Amino acid sequence: MNSLARQAHPFTAGTVTLALVALALVFPTAAETVVLYGVTIVIALLAGAGAGVRRGLVAVLPIWILLFILKCVLGDGPRMAAPWGGTLSQPGVEWALSQGSRLAVIATASLAFASIFDPHRFLQAAIARRWPFGAAFLLVATLDAADRLGEQAHQLREAQRTRGVRVTGSMATRVRAFPALMFPLLLASLTEADDRALALETRGLMIQGPRTAVDPPTDRVIDRVVRWLALTCVICVVIWRVRS
Amino acid sequence: MRFATRGLHVRYPVQEQWAVHDVSVEMVPGQVTWLTGALGSGTSTLLLALAGLAPRLTGGSRTGTVTADDVDVATISPLSHGIAYLGPSPALQISGISKSVHDEIAVGPMNLGMPREACLQATQGALHRLGVEHLADRAPNALSGGETQRVLIAALLATAPIAWLLDEPFSALDRASTVRVQRLLRELADDGGAVVVACDDANIMLDVADRLLVMHRGRIALDGNPRELLAGDAMHALGAGSTDAAELARDAGVTAPRPVDRAALLELVASRGVRGH
Questions:
Q1: Domain residue limits at B162
Q2: CATH code, domain carrying B114
Q3: Chain A residues whose C-beta sits inside 8 Å of any chain B C-beta
């Protein structure tokens, strides 16, 4: 609870995440994107979002493997010696590194943000700033949806197991179990939409008009400095890219 | 708040039959109105219609009128007009935007734009009145069914509604919590609130309700004093249950009017000279 992210203003984590994603898209070469991935990991760990780093790695690992095979091993162009013997495509390695680390930055920054995101604090901050509540709630609901879906999938898997459906084991077993998990999950998600509408209506979340920030997070000087720093960084890199 | 329906019909999508069929009724402030009936009799749908949620959220269609203080409920947001609705599955009404029960209870006052101090006072007051202070720091989605039910009632209470529409509010409560909520409903009505409760448990509602509406196939079949209706045969004929005492008396061959509570049943037993072995 005392991690940097928990202490920081909710907008600070969001701004840093957006800045990292923007930089990943703007940086042109492998050297820059690889360093940026390293920086992203350090920031995430400092912020107490180690889970996001792990999830990011799991998400991009299959893509890295695919890029390695398609671009490095099977790629065209001049060849370079591989450390384990054989050769790799030099432009393919550069391309795979730049694109792979670019994706890794986007995935890690986003998942790290999601792992530390506190919907209540974010909404309190949005209300205190008089942001449109609908837009803020949409962001919260979207981030919350992933958790809810994961929870439902877990419950469904357990329910199917009690009915004798084999849902773990070899890849073939998992593939066979897929329809038995996927279709009920899809139907449950559709029903959930109706239930959510009821919750929104009965709890006053659809009411138009001013709301009260009951517990507005403190916007410290350090938060404002970090946000401006992140923004300045992105602007500088964009200007550098446009000029070069 | 006075609820009134005139020739109300409500139908769900793809259904041919009306879930609520030609209901014209008034529910007045200061009373606990108890809705009951056999499964599928239309009590839940009537509550949804009174809250303006059916057919707006449920889909389907409605004919006739439903008004709250002469305003068509279909045109209003329930909470901002002082109408609290508790559905039969409270877990589905958790807002999803709070990390703690305290924050969850503060959601309503926050959305109503109550001043900050009033929000905090209302939250504390509701936590205390429902006896859920010890849950204040717990995550709302990690509560048991009974805890969720109490927290949701507290969350609605914090918005200071003037009308309560409650669908099976005791379904997951233990004995102590049931007594607390019974007392709360009575106090809300005594303070001038309009309280409408759909409940299948006659034992719980007997001492709370001022008026009983028994529904059958979407229509209001009986309307009257709870004790008088529970003591008679009409409810049984409609598939609605009475109290344990009345059912026991029926099984023992006692004819209507039967005793509806334990004390009256014991008195009857004593007067007939029945003795245990």
A1: 3-225
A2: 3.40.50.300
A3: 118-121, 123, 127, 137, 140-141, 144, 148, 194-199, 201-207, 209-215
